[in-house]
Amino acid sequence: MKVEFHLNKQKKPTVDNGMKVIYGNAKRGGYKLRWYAILALVISPILLMLYYLFQQYVLTVAPGIITSDPVRLTAPQDGVVASINVTDGASLFAGQDLIKMSDSVLDQDIHFLRTELRKLNETLDHSEQVNLTSYLSAIESAQNNLTQITQVKQNYEKYRKQGQVSQVDYAAILNLYSDAKNAVFQAQIMLENVKIEDQQRRAAGNIAQLTRSLDQQLVTKLSKFDTLAIRSPYDGYLVEMIALVGQRVEKGDTLAVVSTNQQPFVITYLAPKYIAKAEKNAKVTIIFPNGKRMDGTVSLAIETASKLPSQLTKPFEGAKAFLKVKVSFDEKLDNHVWVEGMPVEVQF
Predict the structure, then answer these.
(1) Are residues 119 and 169 in the same domain?
(2) What is the pLDDT of residues 96-120, one digit of tens each?
(3) What distance in Å separates the CA atoms of residue 38 and residue 29, rounded to the nearest whole number?
(4) What's the pLDDT tens digit per position in 225-253?
(5) CATH code, domain with 283
(6) Are residues 210 and 186 in the same domain?
(7) Across the strands, what pairs with 66?
(8) Number of domains in the chain
């Protein structure tokens, strides 16, 4: 059958008897949009699978964290944080006081020991003193005798030069002078011996023994008190201050995290099957969370890690064996683009 078309319809297909006719262009557009959505829904799992296979077998990407190998400073004993002298990010020098802790029990013990020692020393000072009067009188008498004999000896020497004194008489004076000097020396020795004996008696007494015992306890307490001052172990900076003023802490609690001024690096955790790609001096690409990329180099021999750090673990993920690889940045890393423990990806 032959179909004939009217000329007017051919020229104006959207007009019929002077009225505009709409043939549903919008509906056809909606059909296309739904078709594309269905097509994307079907293809997306395939694309995701291809991407996963590409990463697994073409690219090797391992999780990692940026770190400067910080040190955690812990509480040496139970106590209260009395004061904090620095803030996060502050530069530190070795031995700098960071945190001051207090322990009321330790303070009371030190105060008690010092009070008791002061009382014992006062008692020891006022204890019975040895009578040295006779020994001092003996020394004085011997010195007076020596003075007189010295004067006689000088006269004899003058007379001897004039030939008025015999050798026998002069020898007798010399013997008397020597005996007088020995008498003074012996009297002084006796006095010193008495003093030494008195000191030994005091040192061996009950008060002296108790004093030594309390001194030893005080030294131990003061040494323990000194550990309440938390100091920086080296030059560096404060990564994080965890403690708060007034906080009650127990022995072993982390108070602060400090690090050296060394350039940060990446610790990445690689599956054992990729061990060949983690050779020393191998080149890698470090990918930051914001997409920034930097070149790096494997700088340390491989170690075995039993688990991932908390920043990289996923819920319900079991323990796996990983190769712990240290990666150094080829360029200096600015401080404003990283923080301690920031998760990154390392592409081998």
Answers:
(1) yes
(2) 899 999 888 888 888 888 888 888 7
(3) 14
(4) 888 888 988 888 888 888 898 889 988 89
(5) 2.40.30.170
(6) yes
(7) 266, 342
(8) 4
Distances from the Cα of 97 to the Cα of 194, 228, 256, 316, 320, angstroms:
51, 10, 12, 42, 41
Give start and end residues of each alpha helix (H) in the chain.
Answer: 7-11, 25-53, 104-125, 133-161, 167-204, 206-226
Residue 341 CB burial class (10 angstroms; 0-12, 13-18, ≥19): middle
Highest mean pLDDT among 119-128, 196-205, 235-244: 235-244
Whether the full predicted model's pTM is greater than 0.85, yes or no, is no
Rounded Cα gap, residues 139 and 134, in angstroms: 9
Cα dihedral 25, 27, 31, 37, rounded to 10, equals 100
User: Inter-axis angle of helices 206-226 and 167-204, to 10 degrees?
Assistant: 60
Distances in Å between the Cα of 200 and the Cα atoms of 24, 194, 205, 208 are 121, 10, 8, 10
Same domain, 285 and 325: yes
CB neighbours of residue 57 within 10 Å: 8
| Domain of 47, in residue numbers | 7-51
Same domain flag for 243 and 286: no
- Quick one: which of 347, 146, 149 has its CA closest to 266? 347
- Per residue in 261-296, pLDDT tens? 888 898 888 877 777 777 888 888 888 888 888 998
Kindly report which listed range (1-15, 48-62, 131-145) carries the lowest average pLDDT score. Answer: 1-15
Distance (Å, whole) CA 170 – CA 237: 87
Q: Angle, nearest 10°, between helix axes 206-226 and 104-125?
A: 150
